Amino acid sequence: MLRRVERPVLARFPEAVREATKRVAVPAEGDTLDVVLDRLETLPGDGHSDDGGPRVPALLRVVEYIAALCPQPRKADLRLWSDAVAGRLGIPAAALRERRSDAEDWARMLRGGARRVRVLAQVTRAGRGRHRLRVWCDEGTGPRQMSTDSSAAFSASGAARELLRVLESLAPSATDGARPLVEVLVDRADLNLPVDEWAAQSPGEIVPGVLGVEFPLVVHCPELLRRHERFLPDWRERWRQLDSGETLVVSDPSQDPHQIYYELMGRLDTVRVCVDVPPGPRDAIVQICLAVGIPVVVWDRGSGAEASSSSSVSSSAASTASPSSTPSHVVRHMEAVATRELPDGVRVYRANAKGKRAPEFPGRPVLAWADADRTVPRLHLTEPQESA
């Protein structure tokens, strides 16, 4: 029955196993479906039963979580199977309904029922050291414009103050306690613009107000997706696999960037790329990754010398580079951070890099983040510069 499940749903099988079996760790990555199912069948029921009755087996819980992701009629087929097995084993219907409800809650969360508040800021250059801003807020129902004067030019500190003003007005609505996500919309020539380092401090201010230290700040380049619309289905598919897809680490500075294109075309389950090469080839590789729909790309804006000794391209679910390479500190540190947690992980890294632990955190991380489930406002984009 599971083999007949739609491919995008089955791609989330490891994620469903992790969520459904939190109390009994079940490694699901790297094994075949048959191996994982055999392992699930040996596990005892969960610990929710207080009346001494049979508990819901791990296998049934996983099937319920998969069913919650399926459209009809596949969802009904899987639930009928669960009902039949539960009846044969004497499992109370109420116990199975409780697990079914848990699964539905999880599926709703994945569909964006509890979306993070985000502030979108289109940043364009307006002369030396000056920038224009257009700002939107998205509290889960789509972007609404917060700024009306797109002709005003700001210094870096002035732009930081303007963004903090908007962020402060949203803080009370962040009911889940998470900091709003700041999504900086740039063209491809400005992917390395250090907006995360912009500080709002001015005479009389008590704290520096560094944007990327206080808030998870990511960059997004709609221009590249717009110019290569044939990759939009791949982008959406990769985003659906965010929790179960693979990571590619690029660390060979001599490799032709076009080879990365061929690599990614053969790895449609890659959702995250870490680019660990010097600035010249790095920027070309980053742009290729974003153009073909990789939703998450990480690199070190300040990395150069330490990446030059790297000499490999590798791919794995654990995000590890070849043992012969010498990854930048940013790449090495972010290996341990789950893909979905990267915005917060990068924020913490930036805070450490500015404080007493600066020698331990020498990098300047950049995180490109393209959420296929969230809309971006229609932008007045400049024509791309072919020399960029």
Can you tell me about this structure?
The protein has 388 residues and is of the alpha/beta class. It has 14 helices and eleven strands. It has helices at 7-10, 13-20, 33-41, 58-69, 74-89, 93-110, 156-170, 211-214, 222-227, 232-240, 257-265, 279-291, 329-334, 342-354; strands spanning 118-125, 131-138, 144-145, 153-154, 181-185, 217-220, 246-250, 270-275, 296-300, 313-316, 365-369. Strands 1, 2, 3, 4, 5 and 6 form a six-stranded mixed β-sheet that branches. Strands 10-7-8-9-11 form a five-stranded mixed β-sheet, with helices on both faces. Strand 1 and strand 2 (131-138) form a beta hairpin. Helix 11 (257-265) runs parallel beside helix 12. The model is unreliable at 305-324 and 382-388 (pLDDT under 50).
